[in-house]
């Protein structure tokens, strides 16, 4: 996918070997870096998961999932199957392969519509879509596995990154191809001769329209690499950022 491809590139640039697991349902084979190994399959494919975790794997960056908040309302069961069941299967496969570090791509969707202007890690979570709920459940699964591993005397290091809307490219090879994200939607409408429409005029903002926070995809990729490096050095991290 769009974000995962940039994370894979950033990990390779940081001197790591990368194995990509992707069922290419929304990702693209052309986005997989040439120096990365591709295992084609989903988190629900036990054989593909086992192949991806073979060899000297030291950690996992988990970006797989059905990531459309609006569409998740129409397809809740599909969303839970991909995002919740998929994460359960991944953690089970990691346990079987003795892989004990994971960086989880969570989402600011876990907050829903906060009643504060700026959210922090301690802002109450109140997701408003099956997608947001599935990401929060993913965080709970990491916490549960961390607790279980502690009882067993086994190390298990996990961190979740709750980032906001991802935007940009920074690459001639990788772009956002989601039909549900802002920039592709606006550019597609302009290309068809249409005029993008902004919905809502009663928000508490200078012009009444809504305001969203965006983060560049290259920065998101570097954040995942930084988290992975901290885990690899066995440094203490907070559960979420």
Task: Explain this structure.
The protein has a 3-stranded parallel sheet with strand order 3-4-5, sandwiched between helices. A two-stranded parallel sheet has the order 1-2. The chain is globular and about 55 Å long. The protein has 7 helices and 7 strands; from the N terminus they run αββαβααβαββαβα. The chain is 39% helix and 11% strand. α1 packs across α7 (217-232) and α4 runs parallel beside α5 (130-152). It has helices spanning 2-13, 46-52, 69-74, 76-96, 130-152, 182-191, 217-232; strands at residues 19-22, 37-40, 60-62, 101-105, 157-161, 165-167, 214-216. The two termini are 22 Å apart. The longest helix has 23 residues, at 130-152. It is α/β, with parallel strands linked by helices and 241 residues long. α5 links the parallel β4 and β5.
Give the fraction of residues assigned to helices.
25-40%
What class would the helix/strand composition place it in?
alpha/beta
Give the overall silhouette.
globular
Instruction: Give the low-pLDDT segments.
Output: none
Rounded to an integer in angstroms, the radius of gyration calculated over CA atoms is 18 Å
Average pLDDT rating: 94
Oligomer: single chain
What is the succession of H and E elements? HEEHEHHEHEEHEH
Which percent band covers the strand fraction? 5-15%
